[in-house]
Amino acid sequence: MSTTEFLAVRGRKLAAGAGALTTALALGATLSAMAPAQAAPGPTAKPYGVITAKMGLSERQYPSTDASVKGYLRHRAQVNLVCKVRTQPVGGNSVWYLTGEGRATWVAAKYVTNTGSVKYCKEVQRGRIAPHNNAAKHAVG
User: Fold this and answer.
1) Which residues pair with 90 in a beta bridge?
2) Residues 102-126 pLDDT 10s
3) Which of 24, 52, 96, 126 has its CA 20 to 30 A from that of 73?
4) Is 95:86 a contact under the CB 8 Å cutoff?
5) φ/ψ (deg, to 5) at 66
6) Residue 58 and residue 75: Cα distance in Å, rounded?
7) Buried b (16+ CB within 10 A) or exposed e, 88-114
């Protein structure tokens, strides 16, 4: 085989290899373009809680077991959580959640599994907390 023939064969092999590499790169770019994009950060989902007490949970007027009962939430019920405070401990947990279920009521965090981050009531705009409920303003935390 002459040098010229050798170079011609070698050139064809290199061209074929380069073509395969170009095809692989193009295919990779196409597949990555088709991959589902990550969700763009949008509005933060409002936190909610799921009631874990087997017998359900009382909704209170203020964050205390001495406050009057304003409603009742069944086991596994979902409830919107507006904010939290630290007050009277229930079962070693001093956090209470202000709910956003139609009327503003309080539930003991001991019996609520929350999703997302629940801010302290002092970090939430006062306009978002029900005006009749001053317990959040006077709570320790």
Assistant:
1) 93
2) 778 999 999 999 998 999 998 775 5
3) 126
4) yes
5) -80, -15
6) 11
7) bebeeebbbbbbbbeebbbbbbbbbeb
- List of residues 6+ apart from 70 with CB closer than 8 A: 59, 60, 61, 103, 105
Taking the C-alpha atoms of residue 109 and residue 63, their distance in angstroms, rounded to an integer, is 10
pLDDT at site 105? 95
Question: What confidence tier does 6 reach under pLDDT thresholds 50, 70, 90?
Answer: low
The tokens for 41 are 């950060």
How big, in percent rounded to 5, are the helix, strand and coil portions of the chain?
30, 30, 40
**Residue 129 carries which side chain, given as an amino acid letter?**
I
